[in-house]
Automatic annotation (TrEMBL):
Coiled-coil ranges (or none): none
Source organism: Aneurinibacillus aneurinilyticus
Keyword list, A-Z: Signal
InterPro entries: SLH_dom, YcdB/YcdC_rep_domain
SLH domain span: 570-632, 633-695
Record bears the keyword Zinc: no
Protein name: S-layer homology domain-containing protein
Signal peptide (from-to): 1-30
Pfam families: DUF4901 (PF16244), SLH (PF00395)
Length: 757
């Protein structure tokens, strides 16, 4: 399962970079495509940059921190990126828990720094708040670094102002604390090429990634203009109603959304329009092979027209589960079961699963992993891995293509009919998509065949089953099934497709770029990759693209909505209702750091909060991901419904000790008092037991007699997280506002972070 997830994320990252023009490091696909490192005395002698020179260049680029020692010098002939390079590593290991790692990769031909990663121990300590950085100074330093170490490329590097804006807004992710310098050719940005410098919250360089390949650039003659492209897209764009499994939100509700009509299996997760258009022909093309996207894909025929019922609850034991996997033909008698186990999981759906790991004992050594739903007897996922795959990756001449896409589709469909017989009338096949070796369209490793789930003739985004068929042997090498169990919303009171199309086109922007075809790998030997001028079309708001797969057009309201671990104020709208507020300065700082949710330019600072809303402020400001708890997990609190939007915030607060475990009722709709807020803060700091001891923290409030949590009130005021009123009253029973709660939480996190340091 982990391997499947990793592949999906890598694919999503690539798709996002292709659409938005981002820069990917060379090591994105390292685990799956990196050639075996090769080092020899002969290689060291004949390489222009020898060992000592590589070490000198590395230390000139980034001084080695005190206490670090060089623990690895490796030469690698990396066929995946088409370079021979030095990999140099330094580490620090001292008594206690202090350690660090620094790795630097250098081109062995010309000494160019390709990659730097510095990971000190302090990086693993939670960065609760974005740092206060002088971005002007960082930009100047970055330009100086380019002029010194990348001088021959400097004239073709353009600074990305969008990356600066993202940086200024702050993020818990170091990937967003990055400055990008994009490669230009003929004045046009080149997707996935250039320099990315990432920083920690103190402004120190965390990583550097430089991508600059040998590329054959197509001419830009006869390129269509942007307006012409947008008009053509508007004529051809079709929006369709879709169910969106919003499983990363509290409760895991399924939403009704409008999404671009599905054309290929690579669009399975897309709910926001985004296209790659050939700048000369005006036709939509694939970012993988540059071929025109087939606009006539038929996904209107289910695998069966006969109505089926959901699989019964059979509650299989281990013996029956293994027998069932054998029945599917993926666990043969010649295989030795080396590991088997049972687990109960809540995410992505609540289910009980049997897992088996087996090894082939006859002929070619193969490894097989399979998971079976213990309640339904359905195959959840399956993967097969053998030595032949390794051999093909190391020697592409061994890649054979004996299976066509049509044959792969038939094989995949037969397999689905066997493993998901009760789902056939809800599954619709999408034509096979070839997976190429290093982007080489002449070498197909396997075909991916997707079967999308439809309910009420409406597709469920990202759900159904996928099957990989080996292009050489025709064997099933990978399979995964996703099928959420949440109730489907009624299709009623939705906007019309044409209105959805207008809302999408109103935010659609087109940018002329060079796209590398294929987008990764070294391309043809000695020729490099080819690049053609394309228009990248994507929905944007105020110049910032919505995150693919995490934003959607609400089919009922026609509003653009977001979910998942996204900036809470990604619209970037100015806030109109905090001017003159006593806490304006603090609130504006939090908004600028993207820590407060703003809707329609309004913060509503004086809104009085319930206990549930106050906890949600903690959760939002702490930048916790929505998927902290899966939707299947039952709520700890008896008065918090599983579908309540504050469920995840409450569960997070419980796990982080803000809430005690001996109280099963949260009372989320009752007023959040100042005393309740003080208690949350003190528990979060870990001083609740100390505060409970009488006489430890002296209180001198005028209303001391009515304060129940005297130690908590004294501590939060001593730390200046909360303040008494002008009469020196703590006002324990007064209901707090959104503004004072947010500022108190912000101050609390500063205090907590200083304690951690």
């Amino acid at each position: 399962m982990r391997k499947q997830t990793k592949k999906k994320w890598a694919g999503s990252m690539l798709a996002a970079a292709i659409a938005a023009g981002g820069i990917l490091p060379y090591n994105v696909f390292a685990d799956e495509a990196k050639a075996t490192p090769q080092a020899s005395v002969q290689a060291v002698k004949t390489t222009k940059i020898d060992r000592e020179e590589a070490l000198r260049i590395a230390q000139e680029f980034m001084p080695i921190p005190a206490g670090y020692t060089n623990n690895q010098v490796e030469m690698e002939d990396n066929k995946y990126i088409g370079r021979t390079l030095w990999r140099l590593t330094w580490g620090m290991q001292q008594s206690g828990d202090d350690y660090g790692q620094l790795s630097i990769s250098i081109d062995a031909k010309d000494g160019t720094i390709l990659n730097v990663n510095h990971w000190p121990r302090e990086s693993e300590r939670s960065n609760l708040l974005p740092g206060k950085l002088d971005t002007t100074s960082l930009v100047n330093q970055a330009n100086a670094l380019i002029n010194k170490h990348y001088a021959k490329y400097a004239s073709q590097l353009k600074f990305s102002e969008e990356s600066l804006e993202s940086f200024k807004r702050g993020s818990a992710s170091y990937m967003d604390n990055s400055l990008y310098f994009i490669r230009l050719q003929n004045g046009i940005p080149v997707t996935d090429q250039g320099l990315r410098i990432s920083y920690d919250r103190n402004g120190k360089i965390r990583s550097v990634d430089f991508s600059w390949d040998e590329v054959q650039f197509d001419s830009i003659s006869n390129v269509k203009n942007k307006e012409e492209i947008l008009h053509q897209v508007e004529r051809e764009l079709e929006m369709e109603l879709a169910y969106l499994s919003n499983t990363s939100q509290p409760g895991g509700k399924i939403e009704l959304a409008y999404a671009p009509k599905l054309k290929t299996s690579s669009d399975l997760y897309n709910v926001v329009p985004g296209f790659l258009i050939d700048a000369k022909t005006g036709k939509q093309i694939s970012g993988i092979d540059g071929k025109e996207v087939n606009t006539s894909v038929d996904i209107n025929r289910p695998l069966s027209t006969a109505k089926t019922t959901p699989p019964p609850n059979v509650n299989m034991d281990e013996a029956h589960a293994i027998a069932k996997i054998k029945e599917f033909g993926i666990l043969k008698n010649s295989m030795r079961i080396e590991q088997k186990g049972y687990r109960e999981e809540n995410y992505p759906v609540k289910r009980k699963v049997w897992e088996v790991y087996a090894v082939e004992t006859e002929g070619e050594r193969k490894q097989v992993r399979a998971s079976l739903d213990a309640q339904t007897g359905e195959l959840v996922n399956y993967s097969q891995y053998g030595m032949s795959y390794n051999e093909k990756m190391e020697n592409p001449d061994k890649i054979k293509m004996n299976i066509s896409g049509q044959q792969a589709e038939k094989t995949a469909e037969a397999f689905i009919r066997k493993v998901l017989p009760e789902r056939l009338n809800k599954l619709y096949a999408v034509e096979a998509t070839p997976n190429y070796y290093n982007g080489d369209t002449e070498k197909i490793l396997n075909y991916n065949v997707a079967f999308i789930r439809k309910e009420n003739e409406t597709r469920v985004v990202g759900e159904g089953a996928t099957v990989n068929v080996d292009a050489d042997t025709g064997e099933i090498t990978d399979y995964n099934m996703t099928w959420s169990s949440q109730a489907l919303p009624a299709i009623a009171n939705v906007i019309k497709p044409e209105e959805a199309k207008k809302k999408a086109m109103a935010l659609m922007e087109a940018e002329l770029r060079y796209n590398l075809i294929p987008p990764y790998g070294p391309g043809e030997t000695g020729k490099g990759r080819k690049a053609k001028p394309v228009y990248v079309l994507a929905v944007k708001a105020n110049g910032r693209p919505y995150d693919y797969g995490t934003s959607y057009l609400d089919a009922r309201t026609g509003e653009w909505k977001t979910y998942g671990n996204l900036p809470v104020n990604n619209s970037g709208q100015p806030v109109s209702d905090i001017a003159g507020h006593p806490l304006q300065k603090e609130l504006q700082a939090m908004i600028d750091a993207n820590l407060l949710e703003v809707k329609g330019g309004q913060l509503n600072p004086d809104q009085k909060l319930t206990r549930g809303e106050a906890i949600k402020i903690f959760y939002t400001v702490a930048r916790q991901p929505y998927e902290y708890y899966g939707p299947g997990q039952e709520s700890f609190f008896t008065d918090v419904d599983d579908n309540d939007e504050i469920k995840q915030a409450a569960e997070w607060a419980l796990q982080n000790r803000l809430l005690p475990r001996n109280v099963k009722q949260l009372r989320p709709n009752e007023p959040a008092t100042r005393e309740f807020l003080a208690e949350l803060i003190v528990r979060g700091l870990g001083y609740d037991k100390l505060a409970a001891k009488e006489g430890i923290f002296e209180t001198k409030f005028q209303d001391e007699a009515i304060i129940k949590k005297k130690g908590e009130a004294a501590l939060v005021t001593r730390l200046q997280v909360m303040t008494p009123n002008s009469k020196n009253e703590f006002e324990p029973a007064r209901q707090v506002t959104k503004a004072e709660t947010a500022v108190a939480v912000y101050r609390y996190l500063h205090i907590k972070e200083s304690f951690m340091e």
